[in-house]
Specification:
Blueprint lengths: L16 H13 L4 H12 L14 H8 L12 H11 L2
Length: 92
C-alpha cells in the first residue's frame, strides 16, 4: 500500500477582526487550531449533502428568531418550602 501525503496549502482571507477574535477563542476552547476549524467548516460546506447555504441544518429556534419575535417562557422558581409541601401533598 502506498503512503499518501497530503500537503497543506496556505490561504489568505480577509475577515472582520471581531469575527476572527471570536473564532480564535472558539477554536482554542475546542482544542483545535483556527486553520483546522476553517478547514472543517469548508469540508462541511462543500460536502455533497449541501447544494446551497439554505440546505445547512439550522435549529428551529434560529429560524423562528430570524423570522419574527420569539417569547421566552420561564417558570417561577419554586421555593424549598413549596417544593416540600407539594411533595408531601402528593403522598397523601
Amino acid at each position: 500500500m502506498a503512503n499518501v501525503y497530503v500537503m497543506d496549502a496556505k490561504l489568505t482571507l480577509s475577515l472582520d477582526e471581531a469575527v476572527i477574535n471570536k473564532a480564535k477563542r472558539y477554536a482554542a476552547s475546542n482544542n483545535v487550531s483556527l486553520s483546522r476549524l476553517v478547514e472543517f467548516l469548508l469540508q462541511k460546506a462543500t460536502s455533497p449533502a449541501y447544494k446551497s447555504l439554505e440546505d445547512f441544518p439550522i435549529s428551529d429556534w434560529v429560524t423562528e428568531v430570524s423570522e419574527g419575535a420569539v417569547t421566552y417562557q420561564t417558570t417561577k422558581k419554586r421555593t424549598r418550602k413549596s417544593a416540600k409541601a407539594a411533595y408531601f401533598s402528593s403522598k397523601k
